[in-house]
Amino acid sequence: MSKRDLKKYLGELTKEQLEEQLIELYEKFAPVKVYYDFVFNPKEDKLLQEAKVKISHEYFPIKKPGAKWRPKAKMRRSVAQKLIKHFIMLGVDSYVVADIMLYNIEIAQTFSSQNFIKQELFYKSIFNSFEQAVNFIISNGIFNDFKLRINAIHEETLQQKWKNKYDFEAILDKIDY
171: Cβ–Cβ under 8 A, 6 or more apart, which residues? Predict the structure, then answer.
């Protein structure tokens, strides 16, 4: 069904029929429920904090009470990517999205400063996240608000002597700041 056909169909419905269909969609499809829950009660701060906790647990998992061992860090970039995609889909403020994008990189750098990481894929993955974050921040016209954090991330790659530190530098060289 095309968008035009949908508009025509919806135009033929009464107000009560429209309300009925929306309620049915709300009850039947979780993404619709999530969307409307956010639209009518956009607790962006709460969403941001929950996302930061999930991302930090990827690198610094919490030992469960009574457990004899601490779980190993999974370091999955996909967890943060899903959260970022979800935030964008909901229409969360671009400052909040940019904050979570940079937080993902910063927590990974904190982890790598304390742990030796031999997988080169980790560094490539964090670089990809950095490139996406910078592009998002520039495209939303909020670069000056995040300039210090972006530079701090770059400086951290130099300090930790990441093999791909010059790739980070190349991204910043492209920007006229």
Answer: 130, 131, 134
Q: Note whether 34 and 90 are within 8 A (CB).
A: yes
d(CA 159, CA 140) in angstroms, rounded, equals 29
Can you tell me the mean pLDDT for 116-121?
92
Between CA 175 and CA 170 the distance in angstroms is 9
Helix (H, G, I), strand (E, B) or coil at 13: coil
- How far apart CA 93 and CA 137 sit, in angstroms, is 12
Please enumerate, as own/partner, the contacts of 123-130 that have beta carbons within 8 Å and a separation of 24 or more.
123/162, 123/163, 123/164, 124/164, 125/77, 126/77, 127/164, 127/167, 127/168, 128/77, 129/77, 129/80, 129/81, 129/101, 129/104, 129/105, 130/105, 130/168, 130/171
What is the end-to-end Cα distance of the chain in Å, rounded? 47
DSSP annotation of 43: -
Question: Helix, strand, or coil here: 96?
Answer: helix
% of the chain beyond a pLDDT of 90: 67
- 116-120 contact pairs (CB < 8 A, 24+): 117/75, 120/163
In this structure, is the dihedral angle defined by the CA atoms of residues 22, 27, 29 and 32, taken in order, positive or negative?
positive
Looking at 50-154, which runs of residues are DSSP E strands? none
What is the pTM (predicted TM-score) of this model? 0.81
